[in-house]
């Protein structure tokens, strides 16, 4: 048997503890599969005295993750601290410079500094693996980088933030408004310390930036993603969408178009009967489309101790087995700086508006849409007791820019109380 | 850039031609991703003159696959001929003995001779990869062997024969009997030359044997699988199952129980609303459950030129990148000879019988079940015009052996026309 693979683990939250638990429980299994013993030389976290439910006395303790990353008895630096900058970045850089491989669950770090880190890893002949950074326990990074490597990827899309999906499905199933479910999720500990990371779509955006880089051989471009969170999704929209056979999901889409790379993370309507539409709670789903494979769909738990630790240790097993890939599947220098295509590909849209209950009001709305070249697929006006009528319109395919002009013009007519809600409809 | 990776391809059916097409179309992409040019030194097939729709003049032709496998200018032998013995086996062995890596789509070969081939590969320091052998374009071998390597797998299940799933969904959607849809599928070219391989569950069984070996570190044991084909699934059963919220699928299940390895490939009822229940046509789905990851579901095309070629070339890319794993994820010598657990874990069952329309008939059936300790979850008797009444029973969990005793006793009562149909119900 080859020499043991020695880990240094920085960050002992849920995932770090999960990694230690699996390493202890499955020591023999991991050795059988990788041909090496996997050991933990040292660990590091913010608070040494915190009770984490497992004994830590078997491992050296370091207060400084950078010192941990540089230790002679560490082969792989496992970064589970999080944060795009600060200690996580400093320690990852130190590890690579010291000739260690890195395994991380840190999506923000990769999305923001992936290019520089990829170059750094290549300069040291080391690898950065990050299966746990995207879609929890689902081995999607591996599927995209390796299993589907012979494909020219055409589109990747998915639901990649379990907290948002929990909130949206809970709103629908319990008929509760956003604010109330948000408070519930917070009380359950489902939200990040800064909840905007979740509900604002930032966290899911980080994941999308990583998938884009691999799928299209592009430099990670988080700032190029059009991001819209779920904060403004109302229970009314969820109900109306359901009424027309749709469900609302925070959906990430990345695709290469003739004009460049289109990356979006936004609440969308998807058919309720589609795989994405049926996704409940904290489950994640990623759909990969390629010229050869057509479509592969991967589904699994998006977070949690076991699933995320499974992904971290899958990466560790790869390294133990000698697999070292360029960070985004091809050499960093070959990653392209793709132009950003504003989200211009036409799609059908769902519109909801509060229409004045006056003769001619509907005609004005309809003619604004007609003037903008937008045709109506379906329309519903609901019964109402006040002086505005809830009106839903599903358009045929149109561009977002044409739609935005029409929505502005609609406001000018004076027959809609506020600017209509507009949500893209995505068909699988 | 490293030296080119030179392939020898044996078998130029749909998949072989697909591999050549992708290699030509995506030459630059594959080189960017693997760091090497991937070239084809020589090819081989049964009939040199057959028109395959692409030019083959750029490659040397060999009539003998064994000679192809041994060529000095071949680094990887790509076996796409099929068949568990004969030329496929001889050429694969020759390739390994000559120090070549092997990529194959041949599930029968691996299921029947996997252990010996794995040992042979290890003796030569070479690898056998076979992503295309299971579930077409879905990178499930990679997910199980690598991505989920840190898991103690608890169960793997799935729909792995697209032809059977096509037949079953077509029967349901068109309301057609088995024989008619079978003839349709045959006319469409969906069936193997020996259709028993498909509809008899043999092909899917080969795939299950491979998944079992990886999941449980066991020697492949195809003969240990309890296999039942779809030939006796009737349109009546499909309709009645649908009526109670189920769909019938040819479902493979492998799990390790206290008594050994339980492997089954048989028509089962699954909830119509479950991911497996919703699988249409030729699509495949594999569900992997592990102690850490909980449950991961993979879905994609189970066959076809593009998807299968995608899987073959994914393996080629792995080899180009230097990844060489033991065939079933751990050294062949460490694979265990697990005892066969007869399919004894209790499950609910669907029973359909033609009951004599006489006073006391139902009481007799019910008391036979009661005497066997089998309790009834749901029962329906349908209106009928002749003198036997269609009766459906869904039992609570029971063992197959208790059920078989009860079914035999039921026949003895003289109130059922023939032995009742019994199908296992599998909940995800």
Automatic annotation (TrEMBL), chains A, B:
Every ACT domain range: 350-426
InterPro entries the record matches: ACT-like_dom_sf, ACT_dom, Asp/hSer_DH_NAD-bd, HDH, HDH_cat, NAD(P)-bd_dom_sf
CDD domains: ACT_HSDH-Hom (cd04881)
Pfam families in alphabetical order: ACT, Homoserine_dh, NAD_binding_3
Keyword set, alphabetical order: Amino-acid biosynthesis, Methionine biosynthesis, NADP, Oxidoreductase, Threonine biosynthesis
GO biological process: methionine biosynthetic process; threonine biosynthetic process
Pathway it works in: Amino-acid biosynthesis; L-methionine biosynthesis via de novo pathway; L-homoserine from L-aspartate: step 3/3; Amino-acid biosynthesis; L-threonine biosynthesis; L-threonine from L-aspartate: step 3/5
Record EC number: 1.1.1.3
Primary enzyme class: oxidoreductase
Domain of life: Bacteria
GO molecular function term, any single one: homoserine dehydrogenase activity
Residues bound to NADPH: 107
Record: active site: 207 (proton donor)
Amino-acid positions noted as binding L-homoserine in the UniProt annotation, renumbered to this chain: 192
Record-stated family: Belongs to the homoserine dehydrogenase family.
Protein name: Homoserine dehydrogenase
Organism this protein belongs to: Pukyongiella litopenaei
């Amino acid at each position: 048997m080859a020499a043991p693979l020695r880990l240094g683990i920085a960050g002992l939250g849920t995932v770090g503890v999960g990694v230690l638990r699996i390493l202890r429980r499955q020591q023999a299994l991991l050795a059988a599969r990788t041909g090496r013993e996997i050991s933990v030389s040292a660990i590091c976290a913010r608070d040494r005295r915190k009770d984490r439910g497992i004994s830590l006395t078997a491992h050296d303790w370091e207060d400084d993750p950078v010192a941990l990353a540089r230790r002679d008895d560490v082969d792989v630096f496992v970064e589970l601290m999080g944060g795009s900058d600060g200690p996580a970045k400093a320690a990852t850089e130190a590890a690579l410079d010291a000739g260690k491989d890195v395994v991380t669950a840190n999506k923000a770090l990769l999305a923001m500094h992936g290019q520089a880190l990829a170059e750094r890893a290549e300069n040291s002949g080391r690898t950065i693996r990050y299966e746990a950074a995207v879609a929890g326990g689902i081995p999607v990074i591996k599927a995209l980088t390796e299993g589907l490597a012979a494909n020219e990827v055409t589109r990747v899309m998915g639901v990649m933030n379990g907290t948002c999906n929990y909130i949206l499905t809970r709103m629908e199933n319990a008929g509760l408004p956003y604010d109330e479910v948000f408070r519930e999720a917070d009380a359950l500990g489902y939200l990040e310390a800064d909840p905007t990371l979740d509900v604002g779509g930032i966290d899911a955006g980080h994941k999308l930036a990583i998938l884009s880089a691999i799928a299209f051989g592009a430099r990670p471009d988080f700032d190029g993603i059009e991001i819209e969170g779920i904060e403004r999704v109302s229970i009314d929209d969820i109900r109306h969408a359901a009424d027309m056979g749709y469900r609302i999901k925070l959906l990430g889409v990345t695709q290469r178009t003739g004009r460049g790379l289109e990356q979006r993370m936004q609440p969308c309507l998807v058919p309720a009967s589609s795989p994405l539409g049926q996704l409940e709670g904290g489950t994640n789903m990623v759909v990969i489309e390629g010229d050869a494979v057509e479509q592969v769909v991967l589904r699994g738990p998006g977070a949690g101790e076991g699933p995320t630790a499974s992904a971290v240790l899958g990466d560790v097993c790869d390294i133990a087995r000698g697999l070292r890939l360029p960070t985004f599947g091809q050499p960093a220098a070959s990653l392209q700086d793709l132009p950003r295509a504003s989200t211009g590909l036409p799609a059908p849209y769902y519109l909801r508006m509060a229409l004045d209950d006056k003769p001619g009001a509907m005609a004005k709305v309809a003619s604004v849409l007609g003037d903008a070249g937008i045709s109506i697929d379906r329309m519903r006006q609901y019964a109402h007791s006040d002086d505005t009528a809830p009106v839903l319109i599903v358009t045929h395919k149109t561009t977002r820019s044409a739609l935005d002009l029409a929505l502005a013009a609609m406001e000018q007519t004076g027959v809609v109380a506020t600017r209509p809600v507009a949500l893209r409809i995505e068909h699988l």
